[in-house]
Amino acid sequence: MILRYVVPTCSASLLLATFGTAFAQKAYDAGATDTEIKIGNIMPYSGPASAFGILGKIEGAYYKMINDQGGINGRKINFISYDDGYSPPKAVEQARKLVESDEVLLLAGVLGTPSNSAIQKYMNARKVPQLFVSSGATRFGDYRNFPWTMGWQADYQIEGRVYATYLLEQKPDAKVAILYQNDDFGKDLLKGVKDGLGERAAKMIVAEEPYEIIEPTVESHIVKLKASGADTFFSMTTPKAAAQSIKKAAELGWKPVYFQSLIGASSTVLKSAGYDNAQGILSAAFSKDTDRQWDDDEGMKRLSAFLAKYAPEADKGDGSVVYAYGVAETVVQVLRQCGDTLTRENIMKQAANLKDFAPDILLPGISINTSPTDYYPVEQLRMMRFKGEKWEMFGDVIDGKRPE
Question: Could you tell me which of 94, 118, 247, 353 has the fewest CB atoms within 10 Å of its CB?
Fold first, then answer.
């Protein structure tokens, strides 16, 4: 699948304009001209993760809105999005096509840890920005080894540190049991919690159970973790295992202080597990949702107006829709900061120079700050508790920023 929103134009790679004694210089790399900026993207429009294809559609619709408003510094965005079917080899093929045939200026918002991991070395070898990766894996903020790759969302280690900070404040004598997915996602979260607990981790954590994503059920792990005597439980799980964990804990009559990782904390998961079983579960978030508490929020009003005009078929209740809007808004901010210097080097320079930037969908008090040594744009979250049939935010914003 390919989505195109502007007919490509051709140009010289460098234009110098002289006006009297002063002159303005425009610097371009491949994919940028006086009239156009080419952005590449890869999405699973087909395959096992096709539900996430909505991300590419919303990002494309956002760029169309920007074009209708006059573009970025007078230049229209040409958004080229290909399908990889959530297949890493296909992602590599599509990345090569975007860079070598389409000659995009950058890739932005590519979905998924497997696909982004597969193309990361290639993008860095070619020195093409792999910007605002749609994954919470920590490896996408490794500026030393991959200076052309940057994540966007709060990564899993940040999330884990936020939970640990909250636990130390509220229950410093907790006996902790942890269920974690045995991959980069689960291990990152586990490391974040342990880093956050610091020297107390060894005493507080009484049981750890890894599970494989291919396991049909995690119920046996929950039985073992309950038997540990833990009074606090971290469920570092994706949706299927998250729902199973909630159900099994309720079936066993186990009522620990229950932390559910954000990736498995959607209302859909909790509905599947049974709202009665999910009462009081804790998680954390960095973005607004579609709860009525945000009806009068100016940022969410803009999101609603955008969807009504440019993506009327999209479900505003889908967290991916909200997320994609925030990613696209941040890409546009970086390109605006680039001015007329639309080189790949300057794109990364500006991406690493975001100061207190607050996209419409971030929670109040949370903003994006980056630097040449900080490639993690969102590093704050706010705790939330499930009550009734929805999440309720509480407490102050918690900073999960890495120690220097």
Answer: 353
Virtual torsion, Cα 241, 247, 251, 253, nearest 10 deg: 90
> What does 225-280 look like in DSSP terms, one character per residue?
HHHTT-SEEEEE--HHHHHHHHHHHHHTT---EEEE-GGG--HHHHHHH-HHHHTT
Q: Cα 232 to the chain's mean position, in Å?
A: 27
Q: How confident is the model at residue 291 (pLDDT cuts 50, 70, 90)?
A: low
Q: What is the model's pTM?
A: 0.84
CATH class of 156-285+382-399: alpha beta
- Listed as own residue / partner, the contacts of 298-301 with beta carbons closer than 8 Å and 24 or more positions apart are 298/360, 299/359, 299/360, 299/361, 299/362, 300/360, 300/361
Beta bridge partners of 208: 178
Q: Where are the domains of the chain?
A: 2-154+294-373, 156-285+382-399
> What is the sign of the dihedral through the CA atoms of 120, 329, 236 and 269?
negative
DSSP assignment letter at 403: P
Which fold would CATH assign to domain 2-154+294-373?
Rossmann fold (3.40.50)
Cβ atoms of residues 239 and 218 within 8 Å: no
